[in-house]
Amino acid sequence: MAEPSFTMGIEEEYLLVDRKTLALAEAPQALMDQCKAALGDQVSPEFLRCQVEVGTKVCKDIGEARADLKHLRTTVAEIADAHGLAPLAVSCHPTADWKDQHHTDRERYNALRSDLAAVGRRMLISGAHVHVGIEDDDLRVDLMNQASYFLPHLLAMSCSSPFWQNEDTGLASYRLTVFDNLPRTGLPPRLESYSSYRRAVQAIVSTGAIEDATKIWWDLRPSDRFATLETRICDMCPRLEHMLTIAAVIQGIMRMLWRLKTRNQRWRIYDHFLVGENRWRAQRYGMSEGLIDFGRGEVVPFSDLLDELIDILAEDGAVLNSTAEIAGTRDILQGGNSAERQRRVYEQAKEAGADHEEALRDVVRALISEYHADL
Hints:
Blueprint: E1 8-18, H1 29-39, E2 43-45, E3 51-55, H2 62-82, E4 85-88, H3 107-121, E5 128-133, H4 137-147, H5 151-158, E6 163-164, E7 167-168, H6 174-179, E8 185-186, H7 194-205, E9 217-218, E10 220-222, E11 228-231, H8 240-262, H9 272-285, E12 291-293, E13 298-300, H10 302-312, H11 314-320, H12 323-327, H13 329-335, H14 338-351, H15 356-373
Parallel strand pairs: 8-9
Antiparallel strand pairs: 1-3, 1-4, 1-5, 2-3, 5-11, 6-7, 10-11, 12-13
C-alpha cells in the first residue's frame, strides 16, 4: 500500500475587536482589501462581517505549517492594528450578542442565512479546521471511521468558548452547542466505502436540498475540494503553538491508523452513543474531568490518556518531524486549555476588585495578548 502524503493545511477564523472598547467590530472593506493584497487567496471574509478566515498553503510538515500560519496571523494582526482593531483566535467573544451582528453580503452567505434561518443567525462562533492529505478515497473513509474515536480528545484540548453573551455557560466549548443546531453536523456516520459516501451525498444533492458536500459539516469529513480528511471539531486556539500542537496530533493520528492498517491491525470502532458521551464530556468539562476509556470501562484522567496518546504516536511523530509539537500537549495540559485560562483571568480580575463587565474585558485583553504571544 502506497503511503499517503500526510500533508497538512490549517484553516482558522478570527474575530475582530475594537482595541479601545474591546467589543466586536466589523471588518472595513479597506482592511479586507489590504489583507487580500498581502495574502491573496489565503484570506477571505467569513459568514459574519466581524470575522476573517485564513488558510495555510499545503504544507509538507509541521515546520512549514508553523511558518505559514505565523505569517498569516502576523499579517492580519498588523493590518487590523492600522484600523484600530485586533484579531482574536477564539471561538466565542465573551460579551458579544449575535443579534447585533451582520452577515457578509455575498451570494453564498445570503443563501446560508436564508436556508438556516434563526439557527444560522446565531452563528457567532469561530472554529479551526485541519486537513491531512490522504490520497486514496477508500482509505480516507476507513481512517475517518477509526479516527472518530479521538475527536473528543482533540476538542478537550482546544476548548476556548466558556463565555457567551456576558455569562459563564459552565461549558468548556459553548461553540459546539451553537454549531450542533445546524443540520448535518456532529460525529460522522460509519461508512463502508468512499462510493457509499458519495451515493449518500448524491441522494441529498439530487433533491436540491444542498448543492454539494461542502454543506456537510461533520466533526470529521472527507473534504469535497481536496484529497484530505478534514478535522472540524476543534475550537480556535488563541496560542499559535497550541494550534500547531493539535494539528500535529491530528496528523500523527492519521499516520498511526494507516500504520496499523499496514500491519493488518486497526483501531476499534465504537458506537456513536459511546463516542458521543466522551464528546459531551469534552464539551462540558474540557480536560478537567477525564474521558471514558471503553476498554477499561471507566473514566480515566486526561493526563493518563494524553501520556498514552503520546506513546502511541511516538513512531509517527518521529517520521513526521513533529515529536516536539506532539509533546506540546503536556504544555496545554499543564497551563490549561483556553477555557480554563479565560476563567482564571476572570476570577483574578474579580479578586482584584473588578466588576463583572470589567473582568470580562480583562478576558478579551488576555485573548489579544495570547494571539501575539507566539508571533
